[in-house]
Amino acid sequence: MLDIQNLNVVFGTGRLRVDAVKDVSFTVKRGEAYGLVGESGSGKSTVLRAICGLAPITGGRVLVDGRQVTTPRDKTFYRTVQMVFQDPYASLHPRHTVDRTLSEPLAIHGEKDAEARILQALKEVGLGPSFRFRYPHQLSGGQRQRIAIARALILRPKVLLLDEPTSALDASVQAEILNLLDDLRRKMELTYILVSHDLAVVAHLCERLLVMRHGEAVEETTAEALRSGKASNEYTQSLIQASQGFTRKPSQATAIAG
Amino acid sequence: MMKPLLEVEDLRVRFHLRTGTIEAVRGVSFQLGRERLGIVGESGSGKSQTGRAILGLTPPPGEVTAKRLAFDGIDLQTASKRTLREMRGGRISMVMQDPKYSLNPVMTIGEQIIEAYQAHAKTGRAEARDKALAMLEAVKMRDPQRVFSLYPHEVSGGMGQRAMIAMMLVTDPDLLIADEPTSALDVTVSMEVLRILDELVSERGMGLIFISHDLKLVSSFCDRVLVMYAGRVVEELEAKNLREAKHPYTQGLMRCLPTLANDVHPLPTLNRDPSWAL
Amino acid sequence: MAGAPPLPQPSGLRAWLLSAEPNSRWQARLGRGYLGWRSFTKNPLAVLGLGIVVLLLFVALFADFIAPYSPVIGGDLRTQRLLPPSETFWLGTDDQARDIFSRIIYGSRITLFVIVLVSIIATPIGLLVGTVSGYLGGWVDTVLMRITDIFLAFPRLVLALAFVAALGPGIENAVIAIAITSWPPYARIARAETLMIRNSDFIAAVKLQGASTPRIIFGHVVPLCISSLIVRVTLDMAGIILTAAGLGFLGLGAQPPSPEWGAMVATGRNYLIDQWWVAAMPGLAIFVVSLGFNLLGDGLRDVLDPKAAK
Predict the structure, then answer these.
(1) Cross-chain residue pair C210–A82, CB shorter than 8 Å
(2) Is the pTM of this model over 0.95?
(3) Domain count, chain A
(4) Which CATH number describes the domain made up of B1-91+209-278?
(5) Which of A234, B76, C30, C169, by CA, is between 20 and 30 Å from B144?
C-alpha cells in the first residue's frame, strides 16, 4: 500500500540546513498498522508530513498504492491518504461548526448527498446528530479528536496518517480514541501509519514499527518483540525502560540522552 | 510525629465568571511532611489550581478559601504580603510545565538564577555567582560556565527545565511544588530531570508536591499519592499500594492505559459515575 | 438543513439561543451572535458608543424631518447673522445667517458618506493584500509589502492633500484620497494574523483535503482576520472623520455651501473669540461622533478579539 524508499527531507540551505530525515525506508502492507516511534527531533512527524506533501521530499521515493506521488499532490491522492493531527484544539477551525468542517472535504471533491454523509461520519466516530452544529469550543478534547477523525474518514481514504493522535488527551479519553481507531481499522479495512513517542500506544495499535532517532531509522521491529523485550537495539531498550516509569536506582540506559 | 511542613484543610478555589461560579477545587485537605507527595488527576480535576492556591498564584477572578492553609506553622491566609513574598520563591518554590514560558527570554540563565538568589539572600554578586554556578552543576549541566551565559532560547527543553529547577532550588526552599515538570520533555530526558529532582529533594530534605496527569510516573516517583477528580480528592494512598486502589476512578485510570506488558483489545474505558463528583 | 422551522423550546428564546446542541446552522450562528451581544452589552461605554453611532445613522437618514431650517439658504443677513444659541436657533447661526443646528444635522450625511465609502474601499483592499501576501509568502509577499510600506511611509494628510490637489477639491476626491491612504495598516494587520493562521493544523488539514489556495484564503483565513480588522476600522473611524474634517478645514474637502463639519469649523475660525459657537458646535459634533466610534471599537474588540483586549 505504501512504499517509502530512501526518503530524505532537508529544510533550509547552507548554514541553516537541517537534515530532518535521512535515508529512511519502510513498506506498509494493505490493512496493516505501522508505527513510527522516537523522541522529539527524531524526524518521525516529518516522515508523515513528507508523505502527504506538507514537507518537501528532497530525496528518495514515496509510492502510494504502487504509484509514485506527484508534487503537488493530486486529488486522487487526497482521496486515498488522509491525516489526523496531534492537537485537536488546533486542528479544527475555531469559527466553523462541525457541519462546516465535515462538509468542506465533500464540497472540495464535489461529493453529493452531504447531509447523509455527515450524519453517517458522525455516527462512525460515535457521536450523535446533536453534535452537528456545534462549534469546537462547545466540544471536549476527545470529542474534537473524534470530529478530526470523522473529517479524515469522510472521503473514504484507504490510508490514515496519525500524528500523535492521543498525546494531547487525558488517559481515559486516550483509551476511547485508541479503541475507536482499532474498530475503524477493522470495519473500513484501513491502513494506518501511527507516529507516537509512546511505545505502549504504538505497540497497542500497530503490528510493526520503526524506531527513529535524529532523523535516522534505528531499527525496525514488531510489537510482539517489544512486549517480550526482544528489541536488540540499545536505544530501543532505553525507550522501553523509560516508558515503564521512574526507577530509583540510576541505570545505564537512561544516561544516553543528553 | 513531626510537625507537618504544610497543612491544607478544606481548600476551595472558586472562579466567579459571568456565566456563574465555577468551583475548581472543592474542599481539598492534606498534610505534607518532608516527603514526596504526588497529586494526580485528569485535566479539569483541579490539581494545578491546588498547587497554585498554596503559592497564592491563583489567577485574578479566582477566590481561595480554606479552613487552614499553613506552611511551617505560618498561616498563609493571614500572613502579610511581605511575608508571602519572602516565602514565595524563598522557602516555597514552583517548577512549571514548560521552561519556554517560565524563563525570561531576554536574560541569560545565569543572570536569572542570580536574581532569584539575591531576591531572598543578602549576598554580594560574586557569592551569588558562585552559588548559581554550583546550582547549575548540581542539576548536572555538563558545562556550567557556558550554560550560565546562554539565553533560554539557546538551550534544549531538557536543559531549560534543569535550569528552571536550578533557579527554583537556589534559595534552598523547604517545599517545592512541581506542576507537570516533565510533560514537555522527551521520556529519556524527563527521566534524567526526575533523577536530578529526586536526588536534590532527598539530599536537602525538602518536601515535594509533584502534580501530574501521569499516574504511572507519579506512583513510581512519589511516596504518597492523592488522586483528584472534579475538584476533590477521591483517594489517598501509599504509592507502592497503588495496585490495591479502592476507588473505581483510580482503578479505571490504571486500567485504561495501554501497557507493553499485556495486550488488551479493546482497552477498558472509564465509565464516569456522576456520584464521584458529588 | 432539515427544513423544519427552528421552534423555540419551552424555556424560551434565550434557552434556544444558548443551546449547547443547536439544531441548525442558523441556530448555531444566532447563538454565537447572542453571546457576543451579551458580552458587548456588559460594557456600558461600548453601548454608549453604539448609541452615538446609531444616533448618527438616524439623524443622517431623517435629516429632512429633523432639521428646522435649510442648511444652505440662510435667513436675513441683516438681523440673523451670528446669533447666539437661542430658542429659535438652538445652536445659533453662522455668518451667512444659516442655522448651525440644521447644518450639523445635514452635515452628518456627509460624515456618514465619508465613513461608509472609506471603509468599503479600504477594508477589502487591506484584507485582500494582507491575506494573499501573508498566505502565499515568497516574492508575492515581498512585492505587496513593499508597496504597502511605500503607502505607509507617506503622512496620511499630506498624501491626501496631494491626491486632492491632483484630482481637484471635492468630497468624493477627498474620500478616495483617504481610502487610498488608510488601507496599508489593514493590510499589515491582516498579514500578521494570516502568518499566525497559515501554519496552524486546521489550515494543514484543509490543504490535505485538496482545497485550492483561493478556497483556503477566502473560506478559512479571511473569516479569522475579519474580526480584528473590523475592530481596527471602527477605531480608525475617528481618524477618518478628523482627516475628512481636516481636508474640509483646509478647503480641499467638501466645498461651500455644503455643510461639512470641518469646513464649518474653518468658517467659524474668524469669529472664534466673539461668536465661539460658530466653530465650537460643529467641533463638538466631530468630537462626539469620533468618541462614539472609539468607544464602539473598544467594545467590539472585547467581543471579537479577546486576545488584544488585555
Answers:
(1) no
(2) no
(3) 1
(4) 3.40.50.300
(5) A234
